[in-house]
């Protein structure tokens, strides 16, 4: 296998000599007895040298790949933001629809309450003679329209029977007192 010096290896991979020595000191890379490094050893630690032909070229390629990665992340975050806005708008619409339904129900309840309020009859003392005008007012009847409640709204009043006389519970006794005390 081919052996390379530290300078040749640093030129091949486009890195400084200090970076190569750092890998040697860490024990990741080893030198031969002649002080050179096996190419297979360098490939194991640094990868294929074809990727690292020129330091400026690799730096530029790295920057382009980082920019591309960041652009993808920005695009993904924009999509997530749009989806969040859509969810928020949907929830607002749902809340508005529920509020409208509640408003309609409130109006229905008020209408039913108005209908349930019985009109107070106009009772006058029979001391005055009846005139044609007063008899016409008596003949007018108000029609009360009762809207039956929906089945789900019907509330039944269930009576719970309450006994008239409740006997107090006997005092609880222990195991031995059942045998030795009277009335047991």
From TrEMBL:
Coiled coil: 67-101
Region entry Disordered, spans: 118-141
Gene Ontology MF terms in the entry: DNA binding
InterPro entries per UniProt: ORF2/OrfX-like
Residue spans of biased composition, Polar residues class: 122-138
Keywords: Coiled coil, DNA-binding
NCBIfam families, sorted: rep_pAB02_ORF2
Protein name: DNA-binding protein
């Amino acid at each position: 296998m081919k052996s390379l010096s530290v300078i040749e290896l640093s030129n091949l991979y486009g890195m400084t000599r200090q970076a190569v020595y750092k890998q040697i000191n860490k024990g990741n890379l080893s030198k031969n007895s002649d002080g050179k490094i096996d190419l297979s050893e360098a490939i194991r630690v640094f990868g294929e040298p074809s990727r690292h032909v020129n330091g400026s070229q690799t730096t530029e390629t790295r920057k382009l790949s980082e920019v591309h990665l960041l652009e993808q992340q920005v695009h993904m975050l924009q999509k997530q933001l749009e989806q969040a806005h859509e969810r928020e708008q949907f929830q607002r619409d749902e809340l508005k629809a529920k509020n409208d339904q509640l408003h309609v129900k409130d109006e229905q309840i008020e209408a039913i309450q108005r209908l349930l309020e019985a009109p107070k009859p106009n009772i006058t003392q029979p001391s005055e003679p009846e005139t044609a005008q007063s008899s016409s007012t008596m003949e007018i009847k108000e029609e009360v329209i009762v809207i039956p409640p929906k089945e789900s709204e019907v509330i039944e009043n269930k009576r719970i029977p309450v006994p008239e006389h409740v006997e107090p519970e006997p005092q609880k006794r222990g195991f031995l007192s059942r045998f030795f005390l009277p009335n047991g």
